[in-house]
Automatic annotation (TrEMBL):
Residues 283-365 form the 2Fe-2S ferredoxin-type domain. This is Ferredoxin-NADP reductase. The lineage of its organism: Bacteria, Bacillati, Actinomycetota, Actinomycetes, Micrococcales. PANTHER family: NADH OXIDOREDUCTASE HCR. It holds the Pfam family NAD_binding_1. GO terms for molecular function: 2 iron, 2 sulfur cluster binding; metal ion binding; oxidoreductase activity. It comes from Terracoccus luteus.
Length: 365
């Protein structure tokens, strides 16, 4: 755009030692062409631990599909940290993320974000999305795993009179159940949505008949599922939640699911599946360009090791999917924490989010 080019030329005369990008970023935080950003427009507390952050993205953002996620970056103590978050808003609406405070970045986002804050962004991605052709759906979610499914429900249910969705959502208590009231209202309003809450904590206050259970949903057998959704085998199922919940669901569908390509189970994980006990001895990791070292135990990823000693590590999903973290290996061997395999030759690109040091390692970063 000519006006922006002219402004950038003027900026380059006026801004030394700031670069034109820095200067334009100060004038309009969404203007940077180097890094996609978004401005926080609304912050809503959902549960004691979870917050929805609505934002208006700058140029370069692609509209999300229901169920997709995006990398979100925030500066914490001067270091830009990236994590992935599902977009909980309906497709076609301004994006929002719903963050549950469990660690460094999520706590900063969930507890300290305010309207006007700037988030660093990457474009939406992921294939945990609605099927192309409408069909009966079963959504099986636990905890913050409801977020991508909420986007699907918000997108599908009000717009499609032929929607047929059963949501089984497990939370510790009603107070912890994300989007509780909105879901019940949607189910009241649209016959195409049935919502079943399952509360795992003993004595969880029941919101309605049969809503408090005081134990975890048993996915080792089909009994709970049969009682919640008798035709579960005939539905295309989507599941998102903690690792053990998803492992149990996967095993159940493999064992007892229907032999029908349209009625399978699609899952979304928020964390990688690491093989227990795969960590070996570890070693000293040298981040050559950053001139930093870290003595990393064998079960600590190279990504965590780098961030721990202040190296700005590239990252994305942090679970071995997106390959944003690829970093050249200069010397040494690494261990894949998902399989235990020790590998690595000079020049290999290493996924730092799922590999740990297996002895001394040098990385070109
Ligand atoms: C595709 C994708 C979508 C995601 N969507 C969301 C979302 O919508 N809302 C959300 O709150 N988080 C979501 N996450 C998780 C998020 O990216 C972070 O991992 C999470 O916020 C923890 O980051 P942290 O820096 O606070 O914790 P850290 O300090 O980095 O580490 C905390 C530990 O918790 C583990 N962990 C990650 N997620 C969970 C979880 N949900 N429950 C329990 N332990 C977990 C991590 O593996 C790590 O070991 C998603 C992750 C992925 C890969
Ligand atoms: S951060 Fe996505 S593969 Fe490593």
């Amino acid at each position: 755009m000519p006006q922006i080019r002219a402004l950038r030329r003027v900026a380059s005369l006026l801004t030394t030692p700031l670069s034109p990008e820095d200067f334009l970023g100060l004038v309009n935080p969404l203007s940077s062409t180097r890094q996609l950003r978004g401005v926080v427009t609304r912050v809503t507390r959902e549960t004691p631990e979870s917050t929805t952050i609505h934002f208006r993205p700058g140029k370069g953002w692609n509209a999300h599909e229901a169920g997709q996620w995006a990398r979100i970056g925030v500066e914490i103590d001067g270091v830009r940290q990236w994590r992935s978050y599902s977009l909980s808003a309906a497709a076609g609406h301004d994006p929002a993320i719903t963050v549950t405070a469990i660690g460094v970045v999520s706590t900063a986002l969930a507890r300290h974000t305010t309207v006007g804050d700037v988030l660093f962004l990457d474009t939406p991605q992921g294939d945990f999305t609605l099927p192309e052709h409408p069909r009966p759906l079963l959504m099986l979610t636990a905890g913050s795993g409801l977020t991508p499914v909420m986007s699907m429900i918000r997108t599908l249910v009000p717009r499609r009179p032929d929607a047929d969705v059963v949501l089984v959502h497990s939370a510790r208590t009603r107070e912890d159940a994300l989007f509780h009231d909105e879901l019940l209202e949607l189910a009241d309003q649209f016959p195409g949505l049935v919502v079943k809450h399952w509360y795992t904590r003993e004595g969880a206050a029941p919101a309605g008949a049969g809503e408090a259970h005081g134990r975890r949903l048993d996915l080792e057998t089909t009994t709970d599922l049969e009682s919640l959704c008798p035709d579960w085998r005939d539905r295309a199922a989507y599941a998102c939640g903690p690792a053990d919940f998803l492992d149990a669901a996967t095993a159940l569908w493999e064992r007892d699911g229907a032999d029908d390509e349209h009625a399978g189970l699609t899952i979304e994980r928020f964390a990688p599946v690491l093989l227990p006990g795969t960590g070996g001895e570890g070693g000293l990791v040298t981040f050559e360009k950053s001139d930093k070292e870290f003595d990393a135990p064998g079960d600590v990823t190279l990504l965590d090791a780098g961030e721990e000693c202040g190296v700005v590590m590239p990252s994305g999903c942090r679970m071995g999917i997106c390959r944003s973290c690829l970093t050249p290996l200069v010397a040494g061997k690494v261990r894949d924490l998902r399989t235990g395999e020790v590998h690595g030759e000079e020049g290999d690109l290493i996924q730092t989010c799922i590999n740990a040091a297996a002895g001394p390692v040098h990385l070109d970063i």
